Amino acid sequence: MARQSFDHLRLYRDSRDGLLKSDCYVMRPHLLDPSRQAPPSRRFVAMWDTGSNTCMVSKQVIGLCQLIPEGFETVRHVSGEARVPAYTVGLTLPNGPEFSLLRVLEGKDNGYDVLIGMNIINQGDLIVLNGGDKTEALFRYPSTNDEGLGLIDRDNTTFRPDRTRSNERGSQRR
What we know:
Blueprint: E1 8-13, E2 20-27, E3 42-48, E4 56-57, H1 59-64, E5 72-77, E6 80-92, E7 98-106, E8 114-116, H2 118-121, E9 125-131, E10 134-140, E11 164-166, H3 168-172
Parallel strand pairs: 1-11, 3-8, 4-7
Antiparallel strand pairs: 1-2, 1-10, 2-3, 2-6, 4-8, 5-6, 6-7, 9-10
């Protein structure tokens, strides 16, 4: 069965720290049982990081979403390693993809609420373009592998950003 295809998600470059960010929605996980109402999701700022294998959430996200730890995992980083609590969450991107049983780790509070790592990024296509003083980043889910993004014209010179949907925060930064 083919996965549903979604519009491209345009990430924005935060002028304060230069990081690529978007909104995302996080909730406690729930079973897909029509007789039970899904817990409410909350909107958070997500930083996209291709150097992280796993998504991470801040203590604020853990508290607001009332997440329950399900064990510990070892995280390796530039300063060494640490044992951190692991959680299962539901995470939705502004352009629609839902990751209903996503394993995440507790991360430090570094000016963003959620870190989107490779466990989400590698399920789609991430493109980052730089020109002048401008950085454009787009995420498409699911990955179409060898079909290409369809954002570059055949002459390989024209970028077509009109093929994307801006996320809420990104559209306010123009």
